[in-house]
Amino acid sequence: CLDAVHPSYLTNGQPSVERFPISFKTHFSGNYFHHVVLGIYCNGRYGSLGMSRRSDLMDKPLTYRTLSDLIFDFEDSYKKYLHSVKKVKIGLYVPHEPHSFQPIEWKQLVLNVSKMMRTEVRKELEKFARDMRMKILKPSSAHSPMKERPRGKSLSPRRRQGSPQRRACRRDKS
């Protein structure tokens, strides 16, 4: 996870650069591997920052016109190392406030790419990317603000007059 969080601090002072986590689950030689990079969106182009022993599995320049082009480039890079991509998870934009308590949304979109056609993956990624650019998506961990209530008041709805009353005692079923 440090792979994606550390570069986000480096880009914190650049509000024109939107950052979001991208994670990959791959399979190789009977084992599963997980890798996280920081997706970057700036001036209509996508790229990434990250750490890896393989140069083509970390930093990608801001040259990709679509999010799916970026993801497919990662998938092609994994194939070079005989890894098959099983899942791709994409989170929401990381806030730019350095002291924000908003948790990072790591997996807003989860695609089981091993069971999907490439056209389906492209369609899902582009819909998600469009919603992200329009900032329609909200964190799933975000809750509506709590309303204060006067002391002694119940949160449960009041029973209507026509509702049947509960029995005063329950029968012992033993």
Automatic annotation (TrEMBL):
Active-site residues from the entry: 1, 35, 52
Taxonomic superkingdom: Eukaryota
Protein's name according to its UniProt entry: VASH2 protein
InterPro entries assigned: VASH1 (IPR028131)
Cellular component GO terms held in the UniProt record: cytoplasm
UniProt xrefs under Pfam families: Vasohibin
Upper taxonomic lineage: Eukaryota, Metazoa, Chordata, Craniata, Vertebrata
Gene it is expressed from: Vash2
Compositional bias annotation for Basic residues: 152-174
Residue numbers spanned by region Disordered: 136-174
GO terms under biological process: regulation of angiogenesis
